[in-house]
Design a protein that fits this description.
Blueprint: H1 8-37, H2 40-65, H3 68-97
Length: 101
């Protein structure tokens, strides 16, 4: 317990959910902009925001339920998806620099 009487796990879960909401909001804005402008890099970044939000939500669920499996699942999912979207973003950047002809 902290001085305010809330369990520490509830505070941590609240922070995770708050960051997830911010990530989801920013990701949605980028995704909509990317789809509207036909900007594939913005679409990838928007989807990355959704992935981060989902992983943080799984982490918050794990913290609240006391089951470490959700925290591990969120971490593994986040790591794999960040790697995947990072490689995809790199491919898009390199292909945009290539002269077309």
């Amino acid at each position: 317990m902290n001085p305010h009487g809330l369990p520490t796990s509830a505070i941590i879960a609240g922070v995770l959910i708050l960051v997830a909401a911010v990530s989801l909001t920013r990701g949605t804005r980028r995704l909509v902009r990317g789809l509207g402008d036909a900007d594939s890099l913005a679409v990838v970044r928007g989807l990355r925001g959704w992935v981060v939000a989902l992983a943080l939500g799984a982490g918050a669920l794990g913290v609240l339920s006391g089951q470490s499996g959700f925290v591990v699942l969120g971490g593994v999912f986040l790591g794999e998806e960040l790697y995947e979207t990072g490689v995809l973003a790199l491919i898009i950047r390199v292909s945009e620099r290539q002269p077309t002809g």
